[in-house]
Design goal:
6 strands, six-stranded mixed beta sheet, 9 helices, about 15% strand, about 250 residues, Beta-carbonic Anhydrase, Chain A
Length: about 250
Amino acid sequence: MARLLLFFSLMVCFSFSLVAEEAHESSKEPLSAEQGLLNEALNFAKQHQEFRDLHYQEHEARFVKLVKEGQSPKILFIGCSDSRVVPELILNTRPGDLFVVRTAGNFVPPASVQGPDGVAATIQYAVEVLNIPHIVVCGHSHCGAIQGLFQKLDPEKLGILIKWLQFGEAAKKMTLMTAKPSTPKEELYALAEKISVIYQLEHLMSYPYIKKLVDSGKIELHGWYFKIKTGELWYYHPEEYRFLPLIHSSSS
């Protein structure tokens, strides 16, 4: 019954959309905000149909295997919620390859944070239940959360976000200590984006079960940095204290 009601609702919405579009074409008047949102939702439905017709069929056998045998990803990827940073696209992975956590600024709350935490719970599930051997913290260029650290935000409007940005404060302070007063904002943000990755790795090490596994060589932590404009991935080299290209360019 629920499926029939959902199907009926979608058909009504689709019919309403067609009628609205025809009326719009005849009147040449702009669509209302409500109709615009409805059209966007219908476009998502069309895109899902393309997934079912093309991509799902390509990976159908793998999906069936993952259901039957369960998931066993090798990488826990902690990335930013930024819509331009898509882990599966960046690493060209298949379904079941990555276990992904995405947060604003790819921040990881340290173990000292009190109360239930969805990020910490997901990380613990990945490590303690799925036994994932690699954890990647991936920062990126043009990060809005990092830029927010250097801006005055309205606490009445963005109070929750301001509380979340506390997990990047140490990176901000270190950036200001390292940079010169004349450093352009773009360079300042880029430096903070990289430094923040290192601090998030330290936050991970504040969890006793992660530290124990790292010390015993059963799990490895990786710090990455994604440049949106060029599509490059850089990694943090702990012995050289800097980020280096993950792979050489095709011309080198």
